[in-house]
């Protein structure tokens, strides 16, 4: 290295990538107030009949659409709505029912293993803690959060691709990965909105704040959004 290059390398600052500044508490409250006004009781779009079928449906929904999962599980849940009934069907039959879903072979294997563990360790009941849920085959943090929220009424923030995108675009909980966003939502979302927060964010991301072509012209948060992805003034 020449003397000039050496001197230059000492002078130039290192490039730093900073995440967007989080929105103010008042701004976050306004966002969720508008969500609640527009849709007071948001619901998840997976069909289920009890905590067990909810758990299975969420496991199957990884890398699949809720519409696709519902089509595949409609007949399955009619004949197998408990771990015992699902286990009695066997992996081959479960696989045939969910064949239209991505990764159906692995998912069928996980569903059967999940049923075996529920029966052996939890009396056939869906556990009510995140650690116990995550001990089940095919169940990760997001799936556990969904089940805890919907089946047991806990305030959790399940971060999927839609929640991740919307939380960053609206600066509710900027983060570089899903865990950062989840922890950011825990701090940012007022408790009164906590139960439904992830549903509002999912639905907003799925139907309005889309990844490639966000429908900003009909967004109820248009005047609050300063995302570089925004398509209209």
From TrEMBL:
Presence of keyword Disulfide bond: no
Record key words, sorted: 4Fe-4S, DNA damage, DNA repair, DNA-binding, Endonuclease, Glycosidase, Hydrolase, Iron, Iron-sulfur, Lyase, Metal-binding, Nuclease
Cofactor detail note: Binds 1 [4Fe-4S] cluster.
Alphabetized PROSITE patterns for the sequence: ENDONUCLEASE_III_2 (PS01155)
Record keyword DNA-binding present: yes
NCBIfam families the record matches: nth
Biological role stated in the UniProt entry: DNA repair enzyme that has both DNA N-glycosylase activity and AP-lyase activity. The DNA N-glycosylase activity releases various damaged pyrimidines from DNA by cleaving the N-glycosidic bond, leaving an AP (apurinic/apyrimidinic) site. The AP-lyase activity cleaves the phosphodiester bond 3' to the AP site by a beta-elimination, leaving a 3'-terminal unsaturated sugar and a product with a terminal 5'-phosphate.
Annotated protein name in UniProt: Endonuclease III
Taxonomic lineage from the root: Bacteria, Pseudomonadati, Pseudomonadota, Alphaproteobacteria, Hyphomicrobiales
